[in-house]
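Page 42, continued from yesterday. The earlier attempt failed because a stray header line got pasted into the input along with the sequence. Redoing it now with the clean sequence only.
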Amino acid sequence: MLNDSAEIQDRNENQLFEGHAQSTQTPALLKELTFQLTITRAMLKTVELDQILYIILSGLTHGDGLNFNRAVLMLAWDRRNELRVTRSAGPANGEEAHRIWEGIKAERLNLETLFDRYSMNAGDPQYLTTKLVGLSVKLNETKPLDSLQAMQFELTDILSHCVATRQPLFINGVEAVYHDWASGESVAFKNFACAPIFLNGEVFGIILTDNYFNSRIIHADELRGLSGVANLASIALERALLYRRLKEMAQVDGLTGVFNRRYYEKYLREEFIRSKRLERPLAMIVLDIDLFKHCNDTYGHECGDRVLRQFAQLLKSNTREEDLVARYGGEEFVVLLVGGISENDAFCAAEKLRAIVEKTSLADFKPGQITVSAGVGIVHPHDDFEQLFKRADDALYEAKRAGRNCVRVYAK
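This time it went through. Structure tokens are written below.
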């Protein structure tokens, strides 16, 4: 089905392209149409998110494409209310930029060939991604700037303006700077442009590009090409999103509807890396339904399953959207608290969940008949992050020994 639709799309695009080619001799328009056709064909060949992002960024930075020095893609993929840096392309400095450009010329590496090298280049280090790992934009907190006339901008303000106005923009001659307060480092963008990516009528991402190394001036007509890539990205990402949802079905616990242990462990590894990079703590709550075996033995497994399903949904609806809820096994669940939360805030979050469970009628049991014990663990940048689950689990056993239906925090 996918191949058939791609062939039909290719045929239609060829006809469109041939019509334009016959009606105009403008080299710039022919180059633009060739670029759009090449990038569209490449996107239609895959539904893998990483490969689509690679294609987009290659098209933005290659000389046969939009020819920007650097490009960054920010998406609200996992956290739909927040844009975060997903992938980037661009050298670390001017010397590396010159080396890359000369290498492309020497190899005569055209855009289509570069797309075909995805498997070879997919693992290349992304300098910008590591430098911008803490960059984020809350979609529900964006606002337009009063003026685009300034000596320097905060990068987050520019991105916020682009989301709020839902329009692409470009600015030459001044810098937009991102300050990583955790590391004390800054990244500057100069002669930059950005464009929103829409999905179902809402902003789903942003393309950010610049010409920091060669100081090439961006012209107004280049926004058409940038917006064109954003539109193509929207279509490709929607297909990838549908595909990813199918894959996520294997990552969700079939009974409770929250993430399963396999996905939790993968996600935890990613948050370990992120928290280390940002030098901020990571917290976890491990929860266990009290006397659940007695519930199963007395009232049957069907009743027990209803308790598990309703308990899991209670956790999801009473935790932050950015936090991860997963079924670890049996009647044990974990909540991973991201964003540098403090030990006291983690305890308060756990106590809130405990109290809600105690006051709720689960599976027709009276409030208070189904309770939960919880343990809280936290690791700081100087700690061994791999100890996070063990700390929370040790605290859970302290809660059980203390009589159940309570919260304990890990203490060394």
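Notes: The longest helix spans residues 222-248.
Reminder to self: strip header lines before submitting.
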